[in-house]
Amino acid sequence: MAEPxxxxxxxxxxxxxxxxxxxxxxxxxxxxxxxxxxxxxHGPEGMTLRAIARxxxxxxxxxxxxxxxxxxxxxxxxxDVYDELRAxxxxxxxxxxxxxxxxxxxxxxxAFRGWALQHPPEFGLVFTQPxxxxxxxxxxxxxGAAQRFGLVFGELFAAVLARYRSPLPAVAELDPAYVxxxxxxxxxxxxxxxxxxxxxxxxAWVRLxxxxxxxxxxxxxxxxxxxxxxxxDALRDIAARMGIAKQYRPPGA
Length: 253
Prior knowledge:
Elements: H1 19-42, H2 49-56, H3 60-63, H4 70-94, H5 101-118, H6 120-127, H7 141-164, H8 176-183, H9 195-216, H10 228-241
């Protein structure tokens, strides 16, 4: 029998999940892991519910008790991949002190590239899906995972601009149509960054993401076999655009 605590109340026993819940959670985890293994081995077209059921020794109808559709399965795997990538980036960030936002941004960028080169099928699955509401409140599990990923870059970018008082491009020098779209973004969703800072962020992301995509999908092989210098050149260019060229440090420095 439970004993009275110091104030005379009897503490309730700790809540635990039922065996049924634990078995279901374990099965759902196995489904996601099996789907990812098939993705790596056979590409997105090999990640079918029928193939997953076969590998797990289940019938296809039994699998539908855990996954409603193939589209739902894609969301589950994509969220797992987003969270794994984000964890790798956060680990690289946290290996450096808080008062070095430039170094942390470089480390996160390199971690993004490193993870992508090690996981081409997963990278392809995640980043071929358009994210249209990255800066809006969402109840979508997929959009939420994308937002958490984007915040790792966004918060560091804003911290760098604030720390080094980076010069921003004059709005009058930018394309008015571009400015109008940037102004429409809710300032609260971009850490209060002014339009010039938003322009720098989009420019930096396009350069970084574009370079990694070309590497991952083999579109630089015609020119270079070791594309690391190409990526580092992109980082130097981004640092220069942000006004922190002196803060750029090569890998391992």
